## 1
Amino acid sequence: MLKQQKLTELIRTHALKLGFDACGFAKAQYLPNEARRLEEWLDQERHGTMDWITNYFDKRVDPTLLVPGSKTVVSVLASYHHPKHKDQIGVKDQPLISKYAQGRDYHKVLRKNLKKLFSFTEELLGGLEGRIFTDSAPVLDKVWAQRAGLGWIGKNSNLLNKNIGSFFFIGEMIIDAELSYDTPVTDHCGSCTKCIDACPTDAIYEPYRVDANKCISYLTIELKNEIDKKYQTNIENWIYGCDICQDVCPWNSKSVLAQFEDLHPRDYVAERDLEFWENLTPKQYDEVFEGSAIRRAKYEKFKSNVEIVADNLSS
Ligand code: SF4
Ligand code: SF4
């Protein structure tokens, strides 16, 4: 047992050395409560047009089906907070882009570093089977991070960590080694309702539950079709994503500087004004968003968001 604990701590220490802000361990197993909650949410069609969420349901709620033979889910957090991020609270006269998307594509950054953590673990244990994930497969990442003691899922449905708030990415290694498991953290939202009160579209329809159909992040990123007229004014000045329910969360006063420099905001994304975005050509789009998560959205979708924001700002 002591050996297992020691190995676990060596992996955690290495994750922190690589630049992750936290690392935790949970036993890989079927998640009956989450399966029930997810099924209910899907039945109510709260997922909008994101039909891919309905795919691989069994694997999504059971990592041992996703990675046969797996015993452990290792979760890591990587902050993307930077003091250069402009204060977005109450800003209604400028176009806004969600903070997470202002740096290099997090999939690339996390993947690179998770590979290093996997190799370290493989060498340490003398062999390892498993896979790494960065928001790239049917994995309930927030649930696994919560079970690994890295935080609790708040009323805004984000994972909150007492030491670093919620401006971070989550990655996982699902592996066949048995390790020592962490204790889940209890909920520290208490009687706070700031995120629910601040959401401009009432997308948080009850504590801990978000209706994607009304969420600005979904409307400006995931929704491939044109945004319905009735929601167009709701997106206000958000061109890509929405941070409001995180910006108002008191725990984000704890945010820490992103250790992976690639996740720092790029001035040539963060500092642009509406006129620049309105005149953006497809070629400039590719240049400005080279290596960025925004490039995953299509130029046409991005430009359509810009047009709606331009309308909202001029009215
Ligand atoms: S991201 Fe924005 S729209 Fe979505 S729940 Fe949070 S505050 Fe509401
Ligand atoms: S704003 Fe308040 S209720 Fe919402 S997630 Fe943060 S602590 Fe929880």
## 2
Amino acid sequence: MSIVITGANGKLGSLIINELLQIISADQIVACVRNPDKAEVFVKQGIEVRLCDYDQPESLGQAFAGASKLLIISSSNQDDTIRFRQHAHVIEAAKKAKVGHLLFTSFAFLGAGDIAPSHLYLATEHAIQTTGIPYTFLRNSLYTDFVGVLGLEAALATGELRIYPGEWKFNTVTRHDLAQGIAVVLSQPGHENKTYELTAPRSWTFDDLKTALYELSGKSVHVRQDPQIQNWIYGFLSKIDTSSTSTDLEKLIGGPVTSLKESLKQMMAI
Ligand SMILES: NC(=O)c1ccc[n+]([C@@H]2O[C@H](COP(=O)([O-])OP(=O)(O)OC[C@H]3O[C@@H](n4cnc5c(N)ncnc54)[C@H](OP(=O)(O)O)[C@@H]3O)[C@@H](O)[C@H]2O)c1
């Protein structure tokens, strides 16, 4: 068995490899990276490193050779048209390399695809299905660390967290939880042609955030709705489904996902 992972130098990719190393041996893993010079850690762990640049289709055939499973980590390019072209390069190369099973880190609860991020993820899922290769769609929720752009340190200092008005609910999980679930899928049989919604089983609200911050820091934060707030994240949040929940991830990891409070504790110096 050879499990090939693209975007391996990224935050999610490296966490997945760490999780995989606890389940399978290093010689069953191939780390595909855009910049091999930054992949020294994998070499030291006995993991084969291969060049894989989504913008260089000629690099991909060699990268995917012999893969029984290929995990495609979605590109981090900001332009969805470019991202789709990059994903298409990967999918075409996977088909030519006769990869046994294609897995893709998609996005949770894409709905009917009538919102911007859904077009890219659904288009990629459909493109994967055109290959006829068994697939698994790992639809990741928003990462919990999105809270890092909400200004929580400042809120603790001033006692006020300004948010854009709305009935916000969040199904987020940590990259670490996602990595654990994805490693399980990669290392086990029986996940072919399945779609997993990898979210928390219960959503949290800004009131829950306020409570968690209080329990961790002893400081009260007033949450104030402010339509004038200037923060790009609310534009993005309003385009995605952050409230639907699923037990798929907890079933895969065989236990509870990391709580909001624990996630905040790991993220912030409080
Ligand atoms: N669910 C969420 O909340 C959320 C949030 C942010 C992003 N995402 C998506 O999830 C993916 C993984 O997240 P992450 O936290 O691991 O992101 P990340 O740390 O930015 O990692 C992205 C990886 O993709 C690689 N990459 C980018 N362009 C590439 C190309 N042209 N060819 C080959 N590799 C390329 C990067 O390579 P280098 O190391 O060389 O830069 C990096 O290793 C992201 O790429 C993005 O599509 C999801």
